[in-house]
Design brief:
With 214 residues, this protein is an alpha/beta fold. It has helices spanning 6-14, 20-27, 29-45, 63-71, 84-93, 129-139, 155-164, 182-191; strands at residues 53-57, 76-81, 98-101, 114-120, 140-151, 195-202, 207-213.
């Protein structure tokens, strides 16, 4: 895929308000249901595990990142995103967390740094998914865990997304750089060096979640 120009990417990001997720959770029933189910599924996935150092790749405005403190109150939590406005919003709203403007293709952390690396509903927005996954693999500790989630690309999701894109979802026009199917994403994961521990589906099969190890 030809890499979009930085100016083009910035224009795409700026279509999405910095507080998009907060407003959606408060004012849109469908978004509320989607994100509530996402959190419920993730919380069950994390039962019985503890982590000291966590990174949320593609954290946007930090809404999901902040909820991680409910599960891991003793952990040091970082969030990174390339969208400046979203990071500034997160830094102001959640000063107890560590938010950095950073490119997921070149994460500014040493190898073997994090116990848990999360990339939730972000990989379809990056220019080079394989490079991002390799960066996640690099910074994950040898006994760490990575969580990768994205829409599954099934017929139900594609149908709903088409209608969503005509209404509230118009702000995402051009933002999905890769319209993956979950099988295609699995192939990329296998090339990245990760080992797939689990592959699960949520949201009536509309979202796929990979649990990954080194």
């Amino acid at each position: 895929m030809t890499k979009p120009k930085e100016k083009t990417l910035t224009a795409i990001w700026q279509q999405v308000p910095a507080d998009y997720y907060d407003q959606g959770m408060q004012n849109n029933f469908l978004q509320f249901i989607w994100h509530r189910q996402k959190w419920t599924f993730f919380r069950k996935l994390m039962e019985g595990v503890k982590f000291k150092l966590i990174l949320d790749v593609g954290c946007a405005s930090g809404t999901f990142t902040n909820r991680l403190t409910e599960l891991f109150p003793q952990a040091k939590i970082y969030g990174v995103d390339a969208y400046s406005s979203a990071i500034k919003f997160a830094q102001k709203k959640y000063p107890h967390l560590n938010f950095l403007k950073a490119d997921a293709h070149q994460l500014p952390f040493k190898q073997n740094s994090f116990d848990l690396v999360i990339c939730y509903e972000t990989i379809e927005h990056v220019v080079d998914p394989l490079q991002v996954l390799r960066q996640m693999h690099r910074i994950l500790k040898k006994d760490g865990l990575a969580i990768l989630a994205m829409d599954s690309g099934n017929l139900m999701f594609r149908t709903i997304w088409w209608f969503w894109g005509k209404t509230k979802g118009r702000v995402w026009e051009g933002a999905h750089l890769h319209p993956f199917h979950h099988d295609h994403l699995e192939e990329i994961v296998q090339k990245s060096g990760f080992k797939i521990q689990q592959k699960k589906f949520s949201h009536f099969g509309m979202e796929v979640v990979f649990v990954l190890k080194k």
